[in-house]
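Task: complex structure prediction.
Instruction: return structure tokens for all chains below.
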Amino acid sequence: MSTTYNTLVTSDVDLQPYNTLQVAAKASHFAAIESIDQLQEILQHSQADGQPLLVLGGGSNILFADDFDGLVLHVEIMGKEILKETDDHVWLKIGAGENWHQTVRYCVEQGWGGIENLSLIPGTVGAAPIQNIGAYGVELAQVFEWLEAAHIESGEAHRFDKEDCRFGYRDSIFKNELKGQYLVTQVVLKLSKDPQLNTSYGAIQSELEKRGISEPTIRDISDIVIDIRNSKLPNPDTLGNAGSFFKNPVVKNKVFERIKAAYPGAPGYSMGDEETKIPAGWLIEEAGWKGKIVGNAGTYKQQALVIVNHGGATGKEILALANKIRTSVADTFGIELVPEVNIIG
Ligand code: EPU
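Output:
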């Protein structure tokens, strides 16, 4: 092993500070990746060991249900660079390790619009395209141009354009065919200097009215989204959580009609002619889980879709609670919830 490798990789590392669910878990090996060169150096050696690899960004969408017997690659590639600028747009290249929310606020300060609705989403820039983060009527795909990612087996850098990423609802090729095969190093976004604001989400509209704002700026939208999120979602610094634990299920209209017959107040959003998206938070609340505490884990009292760590919960405890909720929702409604968080172990 080379000296560089030995200084880059540490052994037996506590992952609690690296996951927002604040679960205690150990990685047998851990390396901070600050550049693609460092990654290549590490990969050359780790391949010889044949140990499993795990790419970790902000740890805001991951549940360590067990210790990780392998090498964690913690992405810390920083930097922002304007690639191109016109009268209307700016193409911003951002290091994958940059904090997502700080990046949003930086763009808001510059007057570059497009991601203000995605304020306060925890995590890193590199993780954003993996699950195509979205909130309040906007998703990353709408401003995404391309990304650079390193192929983990060869260390080679590849470019992925928007079509290559196959973005869907909280989904991309990196959660499917290419799962675990690439480490995102840079992300390029196309932001607008004359942005079309998205105020379609009810809570944003009512907040604008309440504040008497008729011509909102991107800063107004960002501030409002921050306030809405703070009022609905727990701050992971004080109460461990990974945001929505499950995806909102999309079901055939006849399934939704059956539920609606039994629960006339059931919310649903039409997704084309044949399908309806049902808020998982509603299903979980209706099944009796909102605000419930089981051991050291539970669901958040204001948003049943968020599983929280009340302190000292193990990954296995959280997984057991998630499985109980899934079974209960399946028994009550005949709907299978699919986790949104990445479960390790
Ligand atoms: N609801 C309940 N009870 C609850 C929670 C929700 O009845 O305890 C029902 C209500 O009818 C509410 C509806 O669900 O109107 C929707 O709730 P909310 O606006 O909180 O949104 P969501 O569908 O639960 C999604 C995203 C969030 C994102 C918000 C806002 C998913 C899985 N989650 O949540 O994303 O912030 O919309 O756009 O799509 C995340 O991905 O981690 C995340 C927090």
